[in-house]
């Protein structure tokens, strides 16, 4: 069962439960998945489906950050959207798991103590390994904390 079929089923459940807000979020997600599938002209891989979900979460978080504090309606809507989308997003790596991957990359590059000058070289190999599995900001901060 593809994620599109699964989310369509979840959307039907939300409609039957008269949960309009949840149905709207799932409808938006379904539209995003279908648009990418149409653009690709083929079925999406699990990785591509996850990228669409993570992109929509990121957009909702950016909207939340830019919303003025007095617009509580928009803030609540964004928080709800993020909560629903995170149910379907892949499990993100924890700090310890990221640190393990960084250590593997350092061993691969034969770097004992990473320096800021080597950061670009490390990130170039590291990011494809954690793409879609870890938050880029968290990866950057963990790597930064390991540097001398």
Protein topology:
Elements: H1 3-16, H2 20-40, H3 46-66, H4 72-88, H5 95-109, H6 119-130, H7 136-146
Written overview of the protein:
This protein is an all-alpha fold and 148 residues long. It has two domains: 3-88, Uncharacterised protein YqeY/AIM41, N-terminal domain (Hypothetical Protein Yqey, Chain: A, domain1, Orthogonal Bundle), CATH 1.10.1510.10; 95-146, Orthogonal Bundle (Arc Repressor Mutant, subunit A). Helices cover 75% and strands 0% of the residues. It has helices at residues 3-16, 20-40, 46-66, 72-88, 95-109, 119-130, 136-146. The radius of gyration is 19 Å and the shape is globular. The protein starts with a helix and ends with a helix. The mean pLDDT is 89.
Number of helices: 7
Give the N-terminus to C-terminus distance in angstroms.
47 Å
Largest sheet, described in full?
none
Low-pLDDT ranges: none
Radius of gyration: 19 Å
Beta content: under 5%
Q: Averaged pLDDT, please?
A: 89
Shape: globular
Written as H for each helix and E for each strand, in order along the chain, the element string is: HHHHHHH
């Amino acid at each position: 069962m593809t994620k599109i079929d699964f989310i369509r089923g979840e959307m039907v459940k939300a409609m039957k439960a008269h949960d309009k807000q949840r149905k709207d979020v799932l409808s938006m997600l379904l539209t995003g998945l279908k648009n990418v599938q149409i653009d690709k002209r083929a079925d999406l891989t699990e990785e591509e489906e996850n990228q669409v979900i993570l992109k929509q979460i990121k957009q909702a978080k950016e909207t939340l950050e830019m919303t003025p504090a007095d617009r509580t309606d928009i803030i609540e809507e964004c928080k709800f959207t993020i909560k629903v989308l995170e149910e379907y997003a892949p499990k993100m790596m924890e700090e310890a798991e990221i640190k393990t991957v960084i250590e593997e990359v350092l061993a691969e590059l034969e770097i004992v103590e990473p320096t800021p000058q080597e950061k670009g070289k490390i990130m170039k190999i590291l990011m494809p390994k954690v793409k879609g599995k870890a938050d880029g900001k968290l990866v950057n901060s963990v790597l930064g904390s390991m540097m001398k």
